[in-house]
User: Fold this.
Amino acid sequence: MANPPSSPEFDWKMYRYVPSLAGAMIALIIFLIMAILHLHQFFRLKNRIIIFVVVGALCEVGGFGARIGSHFDNQAWGQFIVQGVLLLVGPLFFAATIYMMLGRTIRLAGGEDVSLIPARWYTRIFVTADVATLIIQGLGASIMGTMQLALALAGEKIVIAGLALQVATFVVFLVAAVDFQTRMSRKAAHTPYTTTAAPSSADDWKKMLYILYSVSALILVRCTFRLIEYSMGNAGYLISHEWTLYVFDACDEAQPTCNYCSTRKLDCEYPPDSSSASRSPSSSVAPSDDSSSTPLLNEEVDFSDTSQQISTWVIPPAFASSGQLTFLDHELLHHYKTSTWKTFAVREDAIVHSLHRDYVPQSSISHSYLLYALLSIAASDRNLLRPSKQVEKQALVYRQKTFEEYTKALQNITAENYETVLVTGMFLLALLPSPKPEDTDSEHLEWMYSLLKMSEGLRVLASLRWGLGIEKLSVYPLICRELRTLPPPPLLDTVESSKLCTPVGPLGTTPDHPNPAPTYEQHPPSSNPVFLPPRLMALFESLVNPPTTGPIDMHRNSLVPVFHALSPIFLSLYYYHINQDFYVRIFVFTSFLMPDFLALVKAREPRALTLIAWWFALAGMVKGGWWVGSRVRRVIESIESVVRKSGDVQTVQACDAAVNVVEVFERMGSEEAARSIFQTWEGVTWDEGPRKAEEWEFGQLLDLV
Assistant:
């Protein structure tokens, strides 16, 4: 028989994939072994509770047996109905066992007097509720297996009601169990062992409760998953992708487990699809026996460490924009969600963390360039933790595919893909092939220039929406260019000149007020004196107050704006020391580098290189500064080599000051490196900055009053 007729309101199909033969066979074997072992226990111990485990396991055996049949004919109604009913109701028998365990645990502990209700009633109440959910879910699943669309709709709603009742029953049950443990613990604390139970008995009932909690949690996760699955509908992501059945259903019934998360003490999180609710089934192609459907790059992966291996039957390949996800893809996405994303969150902000941890991986499922970028970054990060030539090679393959897919996306930027294109542009900074320490100075300078050019591309992308409501985008917190309005610089004994001040410009266009105008309260643009370390300030003054004789400096107009862009970074460091504002300003500095300045960097103009050396020295102090990493020292050494050859004393001195910051950082850490910047700064003291910032902020509050 074929699928029932669909309607514009409801698209219902038995399967939206070909059921995995290997997955069903292995699950069947494991459940069959569990059934045989528990049946042996039943005959040996004559414990009636065990029979419910046997029945539940046999339901699973029958269900996965039916899925084996569906592998060969996924349009057969009989097999579909059998697997749907048995896999749905099988765990209810496991739940019945748990319910009966609580009553026996209460009697074992001798705690009938502290229990809210008599021990025997726990079994009667909760098993009755379990039977009710069993009947409701079984009825609903049976009705869904009809040839009438209206009945299929009604059956699905009945199943949802049964699952909701089961979840509610389990929650009430767990509350009752916790209440009993609390009351019993209080009683035990005030009662001698001789009047209640022996110490060994006390240990026994507690162990029983902990086992009960563990298994209950797994079954509750499974029930909640099933409730969400059916609530999303037959065309939803969960029900239309087989891997979810094995991860959340088979594993959460405390039978077969993948062990990947448990060995790492991690929560099991696999990539959901943010657009799954609206995606049509035709967007996913069922796997075939053709060789072209071999999991992407899977043959290049070496899982030599069995303790870290994901069993291939547990997670059947899922589908994403890039095609079929391999088991390594799942592992790397999991690694990104639990570890790698933290290296990108340069500020402590819950929204930023949520975007990196949740929004980005969800969006990657439907945008191949972002998916490949995440996989490459996660593979590189994983390789640092557990070096592997195969994973290192895989990271390079993913990186190449990122650039290929991203190039295509740039040719057709739309409202639908703009945010993911923008986010991917940020990640590209971490994907640049980095030189090795033993590589030449020229190779390090080339890498540095490529990094800056990549940042220029990100600036161009952001400019497409910068004045057109970019602050309304979901990903805006990731590209926000400042955290606070800074106090004006301290008054110093410098020659007063408008040339030594930052330029006045519209909000959103200058380093002092870099974000879109609507993000500010009524702060008129203002001009502040440039705030730079003495050596850099001397170099800056030589540009804005050039000698009246001699050749004209053709590079002046390209260099001066970069001094202006560095000034707020030093000002933030002075007033607020090393904090989130400093991190963000370091990260977005490159967005103020214009093409004419980058041309000077490429030509290795000494003053341009010196400014970049200072940025690298400051970036090295950023926690988790992945865009520069461990290459700060070698890049600055390469710059120093070029600058010294120029013979310009002021430029060499300014560059040496940056080198000194790096040396202090390597010896004593970021705090002392930051402090060293202000040691020879006349009129500026490192320790007084925060106090002056507080005084200024207090004055601002008084002005508002």
